[in-house]
Design a protein that fits this description.
By secondary structure, the protein is mostly helical. The protein contains 23 helices and two strands.
Length: 460
Amino acid sequence: MNRKKNSFFLFLVLYLISVLFVFSLFEDYDWNYGKERTGLLLFLFLLSSLLYFYRSYITNKKNLKKLNFSTTGLLFFTALILSIQFFNETYSSVKKIQKTNEIPLDQGQNVYRAWQLLKKGISPYRTDLLLDLDLYYKELRQNPSSKKCLKFKTDISRQMVAQYWDSLDLELGKKLIPEVHEAEACKKERLIFSSLGYKYGPALLGIYAPFFQFFDKSGIFLAHLSFLILFLICFFYFYQKELAENPIIGVFTFILMLFPAPLLKNGFINSANDLIGTVLALTGLILFHKRSDKLYSPFLLAMSVACKTLPGLAFIPLLYFFSWKQRLSFFLFSVFFFSPFLILDFEGVLNNLFYFNFIRSSDSTALSYFVSKESMFFFKLSSLFFIGWFWRKLNLKVFNLSAFCLFVLSCLTLILCISKVFHNNYLVWIQIFIGYCFFIWFTQNFPNKTRGILAAKNES
């Protein structure tokens, strides 16, 4: 390779190492490091923004193709090696569940028990239901004002909670949920203790259902593995030409998507369910890029939101580029996913999926835990103005995949920065999407370097 190609390859390596290093820091700076975590996330966004705006200075399409000193075999070998770790971890997690008969982490446990209730014809969103033990204990332990508002029907013990958790006896569960006084001062507590049900969308239950039916608790990890494989197959299929022309970029893309710890640890060791919603939303974006006139994209985007509100909500600006038919389809698909539960238990769905996000307490993984409400309000307002300004800066009046990817990345970043909680499982959204952004930015058309940074917003 000549000096210019060496410089470009070195830049890619440095970017890759920087991203991997930042992701690794999130493991060390977890609880009690909300400010540092926000700083790391903003640094990751800034680094990726610089990559987007200055990529035309780094190389051009002709030099990029010359860089490919290896064959596509290297690409497939890298993807295979990275995939093996997911097969291996899935196998280990399945064996562990079979041995302990317990799903690790509360997210997977909640989904599994919601499915058990649904099989009995019971809505998992009911206001008199206890599924969210984490919120239940947190409210009793950390909120002294709650004690003035609550009146327990019986003495609560850990053994009693464990018995309910194993049996899902609703009558026993009602004894665990305290009565809340009708006083106005206890309004928040009334809402909290009627929002202890299932916290995720109905589509997620539908996706997990066949896996739980055939594989019981182990099905949660098999579902994650299946969706990851389907996403990679989809990615290979729709971008086979770009991957064949740019195998080195493909190698770096798969390392960015699959190698950092958040995806493996949260989706295949713990049972966080962020992977499914993320790949659904991203596949919807891919299909809009490749099949823009079809209804696949609105269907997948609606399903992503109906699985877990985020990260699908960050992709909602895609509706701006949809045809009227696609927008209507998105609305109808969303109604299709939510309507059975809204009809069955409107208040429960509203409490658990909507109000809960406003009344939940902050924790030390997030910036909001350490700053005043006034400062946080100003930060949220500034973020909203930034999003509007950034949309105009990127000139997104017409669809431009490269610019839209950066815009969605900014939305995901700011959502996590202003969130009341910022747990490591949310990094799954960023990890997968940042790998996709990298791939798009170096395989799609981008401005000639002589036109500079301002030309980036006008790229075709």
